[in-house]
């Protein structure tokens, strides 16, 4: 456990760099559980598991925290990092007794979804994907076996 003792002898729950690293690593698998009802919500829950296990030790609290993140979530997976970081920080504050409601956490997630999709979709799917596809096609026409790999 990573506990920090405050001045008054109160133990504060803290996320470690390792927790944040594993949240990042799990975020690379976010689209593995894509569905048309909640888009990436289940993947977001999977990403948050290291933080939730660190901050909440009671199974009922862990279940409630996971249910909090099962609401609709849709953001370009490459841009999900800021949402994960802010949400992990809010969960940490809540676990330490701050007055952070379920609605506040969901409102922040919803507020960040639009701008990050607005930037992420055009950059990754509208710019980088066509450029790599053109590069892959030109390599494939030249006879390179790397061409089809880059194209797809």
Distance between the termini: 43 Å
Q: Which structural class best describes the helix and strand composition?
A: mainly alpha
Query: What's the alpha carbon Rg, rounded to whole Å?
Result: 19 Å
- What share of the residues does DSSP label as strand, in percent? under 5%
Which whole number gives the mean pLDDT? 91
Instruction: Please tell me the total number of domains.
Output: 1
| Gross morphology | elongated
Number of strands: 2
Query: Which strand order does the major sheet show?
Result: 1-2
Q: Give the proportion of residues in helices.
A: 55-70%
Unreliable spans: none
Task: Fill in the keyword field for this structure.
152 residues; mainly alpha; two-stranded antiparallel ribbon; 6 helices
Short description:
By secondary structure, the protein is mostly helical.
How is the secondary structure organized here?
Blueprint lengths: L2 E3 L5 E3 L3 H11 L13 H15 L3 H10 L12 H15 L6 H40 L4 H6 L1
Describe the fold and architecture.
- The protein is 64% helix and 4% strand.
- It has six helices and two strands.
- It has helices spanning 17-27, 41-55, 59-68, 81-95, 102-141, 146-151; strands at 3-5, 11-13.
- It has a two-stranded antiparallel sheet.
- Helix 1 (17-27) packs across helix 4 (81-95), helix 2 runs antiparallel to helix 3 (59-68) and helix 4 runs antiparallel to helix 5.
- The longest helix is centred in the last third of the chain and has 40 residues, at 102-141.
- The mean pLDDT is 91.
């Amino acid at each position: 456990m990573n506990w920090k003792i405050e001045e008054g002898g109160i133990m504060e729950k803290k996320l470690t760099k390792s927790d944040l690293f594993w949240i990042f690593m799990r975020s690379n698998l976010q689209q593995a559980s894509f569905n048309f009802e909640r888009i990436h919500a289940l993947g977001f829950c999977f990403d948050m598991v290291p933080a939730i296990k660190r901050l909440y030790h009671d199974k009922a609290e862990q279940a409630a925290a996971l249910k909090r993140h099962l609401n609709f979530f849709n953001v370009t997976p490459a841009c999900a990092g800021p949402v994960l970081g802010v949400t992990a920080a809010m969960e940490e504050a809540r676990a330490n007794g701050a007055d952070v409601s379920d609605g506040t956490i969901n409102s922040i997630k919803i507020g960040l979804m639009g701008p990050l999709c607005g930037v992420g979709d055009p950059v990754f799917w509208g710019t980088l994907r066509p450029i790599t596809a053109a590069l892959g096609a030109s390599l494939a026409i030249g006879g390179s076996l790397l061409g089809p790999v880059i194209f797809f």
